[in-house]
Amino acid sequence: MQNKNNKSGLLGVNPQKYLFLLGLLALLTFSLVKIPLMAITISGDWSNGFHHPLQGWDHLLTMIAVGIWAAQLRGQAVWLLPLTFISVMSLGGLAGAASFAVPSVEVMIFLSGMVFSVFIARKVRFTTRMNVLIVAFFAFFHGYVHGQEISASASLVSYTLGFVLATSLLHGTGIAAARLVTLAFACFLGSNVHAQETEISTTGSTKTTVKAKSKANKKDSVELEEIVVTAKERADSLIKIADSASQGHVGQAQLKYRPISRPGEVLETVPGLIATQHSGEGKANQYFLRGFNLDHGTDFLTQIDGVPVNMVSHSHGQGWTDTNFLIPELIETLDYKKGSNFAENGDFSSTGSANIQYFRQLPQNIAKFTGGSFDYYRGLVAGSHQLGEGNLLYGAESIHNNGPWTVGNDYLKFNGVLRYSEEHGDHGWSVTAMATQSDWKSTDQIPRKAVASGLVDRFAPLDPTDGGNSQRYSLTTEWHRQDADSETKLMAYGLYSKLNLFSDFTFFLDNNPTTNPNGCGGLNNALGKGQFNPAIFNTCGDQFGQPDERWTTGFKASHTFFHQIGGAESESTIGLQFRNDNIKNALTKTHAQQQYGITRQDLIWQSSLSPYAENKTRWNDWFRTSVGVRFDGFRFDVSGSNVNANNGERYDGLVSPKLGLVFGPWADTEFYLNGGLGYHSNDARGINTRIDPASGTPVERANPLVRTYSAEVGVRSTWVKGLQSTLSIWWLDTDSELVFVGDAGTTEASRPGRRYGLEFANYYSPTDWLTFDADFSFSHSRFRSNAPEGNYIPNSAETVIAAGATFHDVWGGFFGGPRLRYFGPRPLIEDNSARSNSTFLVSAQLGYEVNKNLSFQAEVFNIFDNKNDGITYFYQSQFPNNSGGFFSGNDFHFHPVEPVSFRLGFTAKF
Questions:
Q1: pTM
Q2: Closest CA to 49 of 167, 206, 138, 139
Q3: How far apart are CA 885 and CA 879, in angstroms?
Q4: CA 580 to CA 576: how far, in whole Å?
Q5: How confident is the model over 685-704, as pLDDT tens digits?
Q6: For the chain, what are the domain ranges?
Q7: Strand partners, 432
């Protein structure tokens, strides 16, 4: 390919013609703008529509940026992308005019400007299909806002034509700006040098660029060097591997660039899962998934290296899942599975499970320090070294956090990990020790009316004496072996944990000084002054204690045979799991953490034995199956109860079959059909209780194990290069929503429930340095039997949206990215008359890697300083009204999200 010497400059066009074209383009642009402005007087509706895109810098930036990007892409993109934007924007305008509820619109508009700016700066190119999808996605939100602004009396057609024309002009401005820059360079360089044209061809998702080599001799021909750039596909696409659409894998690379405010948020990498908090930082998080309020962990199985984190028959609630011992930098992988469709998962896994695996060897030793708002600091040292024939991994962490509360959390935590492991070809083993200890002051939820009346600030507790402390120590050993014929895994663990927790959710509902003045000396004097004195909780109030101390032991063993059925490849697994918990817990009456009574006190011995079997067979290139069955047998023994009638021993067991069918792949797309039976386990105290320990009235014992049923239809596709999308439609029935309420020491009965929903998860890596993810979850939850109070399941999550972007090695070493989390409104009582507000948070991380040994990072949480609730409840309580009396009744009780906060730190690698 040659470029002959001439005086025409770039593209063989005479420089004088450039000046003519520039003048003509400027005149045309001026005319196109002037004519609509003259027509403003003709139609007010048209004028309003035309003005709207011009009145916001976010609209201006995005629409001009789309034009510039289209001009950069050249070819059909110059007309296709603006046309796509205008068309989809019009549909969004109709949705806005019809007042359809669309969450996070303003944030999406804000992100669109940032996204297209990055595309322009980095000259990012996708396939034509992806270019159109990206533009269409953001165009809908811009159109939606335009549509919302139309008045009820305005002409929709006239208003729409107005903002469509304005948008077209802005796109044209962007295209013109890009071309003007190119033409200006051409004019400047045309009489000085002779440039060579660069050809760009796009085939599929592979971009081929042709780079020109400049020559001093203008008569010489130019040889063109071809460079091929391919988009990096996500390594864990799971096509031909996964057994369901809602199964996934998360690696350290996806964790290290996420802003994480607390360890429990690691679980939010599971699409649709929310980990929030309604108390002090040391307490287990509150979890939501698939229409379930999982409380502190019920019905979602969490494991660390195969060791269950959920605690049975816990003093504060069944399935207590305290993840504060996690060190995010040591997490190598997180594997999640949803639904009770997997034979290796039993107790607590009705909605799903997550298994977190720590590294055996770190890529580099690290020392990290972070400091930030509200007296936050964190220090971490971790590394690994060769020792003998194996590897020694260590990690030590210390954290302090006061939080924004008027009574600071004074949260102080120490974490430690020590692991020794060896690998010898076809076999290996490891021993892991973990230890954590923490204490804190709680900031439990407070009544909304108490804040509205000025009694307390939204960051102030009513009872400042709430708090707790905890300890957790564990030892795990495992051995594994694999050869061409089989694989064997053995694991045993021992765990000691202790918790002292003090909470007050109802304040003076039970201990009302007007009717029960005993132990409330001086309270009436304090209230009579019209000043609320928090010190009254030192001698009065409804505070209760929930001490829990236990030893947990267990083992897991599995053996897999690799064989054939006919000519089909197959593997069959048999496994056995055992767990034993020896527990001492109680529900006590306290004031300022000083005990003055006992509601109930128990010694619990709970054991389970679970054999299972599973077969996975690939019958041909497009069909494979997984068939499994599991038996779970339990023994529940309660002794030493302060109410003798509540002592007892019960046994129960269930058989749970599982089935999975996988079809494909066709066009890098697989289809899944899964179903299985599972169960919800109840607290050992609830299934043996005959007398309510608080009221002394007889109660009916609860069923030990309650059946659950789940099914799922899904699809997983990597058809678009670099994009992995999964879509699943799921259904889950429970025979009872019955739970043991640790705060009351008794069982709360409920009706059978039904939940179903849709989940859409996306992970896109267009380049080596940039990744986008967007997950959408929608759930419908109702009781299956009618009742006068209503059929809504309280606190059942309906909508969860999580999205973000991560980048690394950009502009010399920058890394980080923003994250968005939307937690939709929820019914708080059965008739849906009381609903929570939505929670919307945006956070971000930005860091710079100075060299391979040193980097700095900054994190900002709740960027927009939203005044949302982290969690909301609706129940009865009683508290002072600052006029000498009390307010008593049902109210919204909430725990606020923390205001905007910052953290700065550095990481040294050695």
A1: 0.76
A2: 167
A3: 9
A4: 14
A5: 989 999 988 888 898 888 99
A6: 10-190, 200-230, 366-507+542-909
A7: 419, 476
